[in-house]
Write a structure and sequence with these properties.
Blueprint: H1 2-7, E1 14-18, H2 23-34, E2 38-45, H3 52-65, E3 69-74, H4 84-102, E4 107-109, H5 114-126, H6 131-134, E5 140-143, E6 146-149, H7 157-166, H8 183-195, H9 201-229, E7 231-233, E8 237-240, H10 242-247, H11 250-265, H12 273-280, E9 288-291, E10 294-299, E11 302-307, H13 317-326, H14 337-347
Parallel strand pairs: 1-2, 1-4, 2-3, 4-6
Antiparallel strand pairs: 5-6, 7-8, 8-11, 9-10, 10-11
Helix pairs in contact: 2-7, 5-8, 5-9, 9-11, 11-12
Length: 349
Amino acid sequence: MKEFFAKYKIDEDVIAVGVSGGADSLALALLIQKAGKKVVALTVNHGLRKEAQDEAEYVAKIMAKNKIEHHILFWQGKKPKKGIEEAAREARYNLLFDFCRQNNIKVLATGHHMRDQAETFLLRLARGSGVFGLSGILPVSERQGIKIIRPLLNMHPDEMKKFLLNQGIKWVEDPMNGNEDFLRVKIRKFLPELVKIGIDEKRLALTAATLLKTREFIQKEVNKFVNAYVRNWDNVAVSLSWQKLKSLDLEISRRVLSELICRIGNEDYAPKAEELERVLTEDDDFKGCTLGKCELLWAAKRLWIIPQDETNELMSKSCWDSFVEVHPQYKNAGLPYKVRRALWQNLKD
């Protein structure tokens, strides 16, 4: 654990840990504590199973016994009838992020392990993902201003169960792990068949780790391009040369466009690869489109990306004149009308 912190420069003294009661998250909280960090354990009760509160209280007892601060977070409100798995996952992360922000905790640890990595690789392979998807679950990432760390990606779940047994600690088995309505569960049950031909969880995780190195190289090239050729307009809009973007290798140009759309559209997930490629293979007379809650415009010999506007609010000349009195840097910037309107809408208050 200390090696992970050193490798990824995790210097914070306090780390929040999502603890469901499963072996992986229980072990993670204890291992981080043993590494010298203060742990704040967070358990989310989605309110979807009657056993959930008992399980949360069981986690509370284990944490109290080990002198670890613990909080139970509740998913309030009406639950969707469709897509419940994805909705519950998003609700869980939002509750965890909100707690971290409210308590000035900058790092959240989750118990993803080697088997999760192997399953994710196969899931994304089935969906036709490229290098970024097949590189799997990242050891460190950021979302909603919170750094997410996953220190157990190189550990097999059996190792964590052995660790807990040595500590005399029991864990909770999630009944959803046996529900074959979920593709991940089907893949988990299929893994033993792959082992028969020499493809085990470790091999799949190592493949993802190898692809991660390629991803990191591509990301460096993306960062170089963005820093050199993309102009940021107060995080409301960005602009860049359409020709320079199209001159890049397709994989890099796709990642540049994806990253900028996520940034301006304030989305965690990028548009599909085929949607991005459709834009990038447009002829030079491309005028624009909407994608990923953004509007892409071709104006003043540049590509502009602004938030998609569903209000159709008009901006008068007097509104803009009043705006540039407060923001004089935009007065003679030669911005297209829709870009000026986006700036006015987002910065006028």
